[in-house]
Amino acid sequence: xxxxxxxxxxxxxxxxxxxxxxxxxxxxxxxxxxxxxxxxxxxxxxxxxxxxxxxxxxxxxxxxxxxxxxxxxxxxxxxxxxxxxxxxxxxxxxxxxxxxxxxxxxxxxxxxxxxxxxxxxxxxxxxxxxxxxxxxxxxxxxxxxxxxxxxxxxxxxxxxxxxxxxxxxxxxxxxxxxxxxxxxxxxxxxxxxxxxxxxxxxxxxxxxxxxxxxxxxxxxxxxxxxxxxxxxxxxxxxxxxxxxxxxxxxxxxxxxxxxxxxxxxxxxxxxxxxxxxxxxxxxxxxxxxxxxxxxxxxxxxxxxxxxxxxxxxxxxxxxxxxxxxxxxxxxxxxxxxxxxxxxxxxxxxxxxxxxxxxxxxxxxxxxxxxxxx
Length: 373
Ligand SMILES: Nc1ncnc2c1ncn2[C@@H]1O[C@H](CCC(=O)c2cccc(C(=O)O)c2)[C@@H](O)[C@H]1O
Ligand SMILES: [Zn+2]
Description:
Helix content: 40-55%
Structural class: alpha/beta
Bound molecules: the ligand Nc1ncnc2c1ncn2[C@@H]1O[C@H](CCC(=O)c2cccc(C(=O)O)c2)[C@@H](O)[C@H]1O, zinc ion
Mean pLDDT: 92
Number of helices: 17
GO molecular function: deaminase activity; hydrolase activity, acting on carbon-nitrogen (but not peptide) bonds, in cyclic amidines; metal ion binding
Enzyme class: hydrolase
Domain Adenosine deaminase: 42-365
EC number: 3.5.4.40
């Protein structure tokens, strides 16, 4: 088994041309003590991609295993490699990292190491979005794939105390063949993994209408899975409406363009449909021009339930803690406001009620201790 050394540097602040990647994405005008509060705050992460969570040390380990890949092995070179001109470029680079995952052992290593990185940030619970189609079409046998993620999930919970659950997503651009395969893997009792809780849809939205995926979401929902498609990340609010109407979305991945439709905001608020907001991702993929123009404030003002997430953290030079710091600045939050934001994610998660209550109580105790004179 390839060993991956424990992380010695934070995921942020790596040097590149024109400053660090983080400098370019986020101006960190958040007081140090708030950063320290966030670092220790127990959290839930609801929108983070499996392959997109591969840190430079994990990518380097995988690239060293597969030297024919075009992905750089040097973590420094990865900073430039992970600088995107637009969403299509991001997906190209993303798929080159997908190409590094070739064996069940690669899958296990990635999953286990991602859990280690989450635990380091005091993430108690994470729903990891996995695209099984990308692995099965590259020749990994479905049963071996499921065994690898489940083995890593159990080891991570035992060793790091972080509970993992899965969201299987359709890579929409790969078409209905991908939808069929993903629905099958998510609903067939012979392969469906124990940790699976939800069904999603990712990839580019332009030219990939949501309604065509309705039959696959219907099957997944009938099998007891929750519906959590990406929508309104790279297209307008009509895609969010489509996700609500046709895919019966219970949460929306990103939903960034919802801010352009007051009726949609009112609907999301009234029905308490949370948005999985990933601020730095939206800048890195150029869905939003600058962090100060991010619509998170409009969401909060309209009463929409907002959760904070990291999407593909190393690819965007961020991590969940940094996303909370960005949110603190954009929403002008203090410790209590940040604790409420963390509790939004716990509430909006698909964890069972006792599990939710446990993390919420931990957040309250941590916050009370921090603020005690
Ligand atoms: N911000 C994001 N917004 C949306 N999605 C995101 C984001 N971040 C990561 N993803 C992931 O990208 C995948 C895309 C994979 C894809 O398009 C594709 C197309 C054709 C063939 C294949 C293949 O594997 O052969 C794959 C999605 O399924 C999703 O899990
Ligand atoms: Zn995403």
